[in-house]
Amino acid sequence: DPWFSKTGAFFRSWFQFPENHSHLAEAIKGVGDILISHNHEDHFDPPIVRRALEENPALVVHIAKFATIWFRRRIEEELGDLKERLIEHDSFTGFDLTCGARAFFVPEESPGQIDSAIVVRDDKDFFVNMNDARLNTNQLERIAALGDHVSYLSLQASGASEYPINYLYGPEDMVKRKAEKRQLKFEHCERVVDIFKPERILFFAGPPVFLDPHLAPHNDLSKASVFPDQLDILRHYEETRPDIADAAFFLLPGDSFADKFMWRATDLNAERLLPFVDKTTYIDAYRDRRRDELDFDLGDLPAKAELLAHFNQMANISSYVANKMGGKLSFLIEGMDEQGEFTVDFDSQTACLGLADDSLYLLTAPARALTDVLAGRATWDDVFLSIRMSFDEKTDRFISHFKTLLKYMDKDMMSALEAYELRRANREDSELATFEWQGQTFQRQRYCPHAGVDLLRQGKINSDGTITCMAHRFCFDLASGICTNVKGYSI
User: How far apart are the first and last CA of the chain?
Assistant: First the structure.
């Protein structure tokens, strides 16, 4: 997943930390294979991939074969006449690399999530790179069982989403939600580490730094930040899980996987670590160096007829997802000189001008980003991750499907998601498990109906007699089995 773009990612909002562009030539020289886990711009950097392909006629690009061709189609569009050098691989199916090692992909199980872990191994080392993938327990254990040991594990320990910082929560509520998300991410990483028991660990961060002055407040150095950097992550585990910290690297761009870069050998007074130790000064200088690449404004509002057609398409892609939504989404599209107001009614599967008083959410987004979405150059997911929009949540019901729908806007993917979820809900071999709460015993299905996560391993029983699936926050009442925060699910 080589990411070296000087203009960052997601509408010039995310930038690498520390800066890595000076290592580009060295990084792609002599490379025989590029493996891409998913479509996000901080993992799939089309200009860099094209440059590498042009410089090396023998180079090929590998991706996982997902349930639909959505990602393959998207990467082919970006590669253009170089798309013939793209190879898809089935899950857990090994293939040879130019360097002499073998690799395989493990995509997320749900068709509604495009991401994959990448495993590379030779006769000595077994390297697992989780990227941003949220694999279920069974997938993780299957990977772990394929080798005597995991030499290296690389995984993201910093949030990479719009939640909660783009939501219109009050200050106290926001701090609480940010701290909760940060802690949940750390706990998830612990579970992954405990399954793999790796010899060495490399933690990486989600959104690295924000150089746009309008986004600078998100360079939060507090312990409530949902974007902890590598130093924050290592300090956390030094306090809570010293065994994890002792196995971890502290690497900067250009470093090698050498024991001299282990956390326990780190001297924080070393000049090379100033980006982390004096982060504010580093970011200010970084911003000055990249000032010419930071330009972003609201842009001009696309034609309202074109936007209305887009929202009508959103309403009609999937009757199944529309039923799961069970309400309306309103959109406020802000341009420099005018704004557009639209509502998508998933009950009637129609779209209209204006904002609805009874919308589940009001989403406010910049017109410039929507221009790229309409042209197919970006997705709504890219707009979410840019941190350049807001979510006014007017419902207490967690609605997982609306982000999946907006992320992909693809009929085939929504059909595959429907089939997958119905198959999980109706399968006859659903294994039961015993859950206990305040002296009461409940027999409920072991695997979450949303994405198949093992509730015995990744379920948290709450004080009110509910159990929360910690992978995606679906919450079920143990007594009735009904999902309390998502429409249409039960255990």
Answer: 37
Neighbours of 93 (CB within 10 A): 11
> Going along 322-360, which residue ranges are E strands?
328-334, 339-345, 350-353
Tens of pLDDT, residue by residue over 272-294, are: 999 999 999 999 999 999 999 89
Closest CA to 326 of 351, 298, 359, 301: 359
* Span 391-443, pLDDT tens digits: 999 988 778 788 899 999 999 999 999 998 888 776 644 689 999 999 999 99
* Surface-to-core class of residue 437, CB atoms within 10 Å of its CB (0-12 exposed, 13-18 middle, 19+ buried): middle
Tell the residue number behind the tokens 């050098």, with chain if given.
Answer: 85
Q: Give φ, ψ of 412 to 5 degrees.
A: -65, -40
CB contact at 8 A, 116 and 108: yes
Q: What is the dihedral of CA 134, 190, 44, 412, to 10 degrees?
A: 0
Q: Is residue 6 packed enough to be buried (19+ CB in 10 Å), middle (13-18) or exposed (0-12)?
A: middle
Report the C-alpha dihedral over residues 140, 144, 149, 155, rounded to 10 degrees: -20
422 or 193, greater pLDDT: 193
Q: Shortest CA distance to 294 belongs to which of 208, 210, 378?
A: 210
Number of H helices, E strands in the chain: 16, 21
Q: CB-based burial of residue 122 (10 Å sphere; 0-12 exposed, 13-18 middle, 19+ buried)?
A: middle
d(CA 454, CA 465): 18
Cβ–Cβ contacts within 10 Å for residue 76, how many? 14
Give, for 103, the enclosing helix (H) or strand (E).
Answer: strand 102-107
| pLDDT tens string 199-243 | 999 999 877 799 999 999 999 898 889 999 999 999 999 999 999
Helix axes 171-196 and 137-144, enclosed angle (nearest 10): 30
Contact 282, 275 (CB under 8 A): yes
Nearest to 154 by CA among 125, 183, 111, 123: 125
Q: What is the DSSP string of 368-425?
A: HHHHHHHTTSS-HHHHHHTT-SEEEE--SS--HHHHHHHHH--HHHHHHHHHHHHHHH
- Contact present, 167 and 390 (Cβ < 8 Å): yes
Among 40, 258, 292, 272, CA closest to 160: 40
**Phi, psi (deg, nearest 5) at residue 166:** -90, 0
Cα-flanking dihedrals φ and ψ of residue 374, to 5°? Answer: -65, -35
- Please state, in angstroms and rounded to a whole number, the distance separating the CA atoms of residues 163 and 387: 9
